[in-house]
Every structure is written in C-alpha cells, then in structure tokens.
Amino acid sequence: MEITIDKFGLIVKRGLRYSKDHVWVKEENQHCSLGLTDYAQRKGGDIIFLKFEHREGIIKEGEPVALYETIKAALNVTAPFDYEIVELNSMLEEQPELINEDPYGTGWIARVKPVNPESIDALLSSENYFELIKELEALSVTTKDV
Question: From the first residue on, what is the mean pLDDT of each consecutive set of 10 residues in the chain (146 residues)?
Fold first, then answer.
C-alpha cells in the first residue's frame, strides 16, 4: 500500500506487523526481523548516526533498541515486544543512511527471537498501520494499492 502525504509517497508493506512506535516486524520461522518504517524515516529526515543501545540479552517491550540521529532530532527505535537479540545490522553504524534508502530491506535493524511469539499478534496489521498514518497526518491523502 502506498500513501502520499504532501509530495512524498510512503510505503506500508503488506504481510508485516507494525508497532504504534513505527517499527515493522517480519516473522521468519522462529525469529523476526525489525526495522524502522518508511513513514518514520521520512518524517525524521536523513539519518546521519545510529548506535545500538543493547548488543545481547533480553530486551523488554518499549526499551530502546537503537538511538538514531537525523538532521532534525535524536530518536529511539523501541522494542515492539520482549525479545532476545539474535543479530544486529552492524552495517548501519557505518552506513545509517541505508534506513532511508531501503527501510524494509538493507536498512533492517535487528533479527530477534520473541520471548512470547503470541505477542506479535498484538501488533498492527498493515491495513491498521496504514489507517494510523492517515489519522496521524489528518490530511487529505492520496492512497493506492501497490
């Protein structure tokens, strides 16, 4: 799905789950990949720095996963559920702009193992996240199914 806000086209990928804090989750067997949504990276602006807050262990829902800085602000990527870190995308420490260039691909942030796999079901579907963006923007937006 694509939504146009102002002049920017934003992508909400189907088949993913989303947190209200703008983190996408892709289930892959017993693990998940996490990343910052296209909406979040566009609203924040060019990402110029990223630092992982934790490198191992159990991370609780709402805790910071990474700190990133844009030309506008310093922000946190927060855990959408309790999980154990499996892998971090270390390329982002040298190339944080990958999040802006490909938020759903090479810009992934972490691969994790959920403490409680059912917690993923509490996240937003792509359709519900799409509606959340429209509510947040409260603008006349142009949408199309991609």
Answer: 58 93 95 95 92 90 95 93 96 96 96 95 95 78 52
Chain mean position to CA 20: 10
* Dihedral sign for Cα atoms in the order 11, 42, 69, 135: negative
pLDDT for residue 95: 97
Q: Which two tokens stand for residue 86?
A: 């499996």
The pLDDT of residue 140 is 45
The secondary structure element, H or E, covering residue 15 is none
Distance (Å, whole) CA 65 – CA 111: 11
As a whole number of angstroms, the distance between CA 96 and CA 22 comes to 17
Burial 120-130 (b: 16+ CB within 10 A, else e): eeebbebeebb
Spell out the alpha helix ranges (H) of the chain. Answer: 38-44, 91-94, 98-101, 126-137
Contact, 52 vs 41, CB < 8 A? no
Q: Where are the beta strands (DSSP E) in the chain?
A: 2-5, 8-11, 17-18, 23-28, 31-36, 47-52, 58-59, 64-70, 74-78, 83-88, 110-114, 142-144
What topology is assigned to 16-122 in CATH? OB fold (Dihydrolipoamide Acetyltransferase, E2P) (2.40.50)
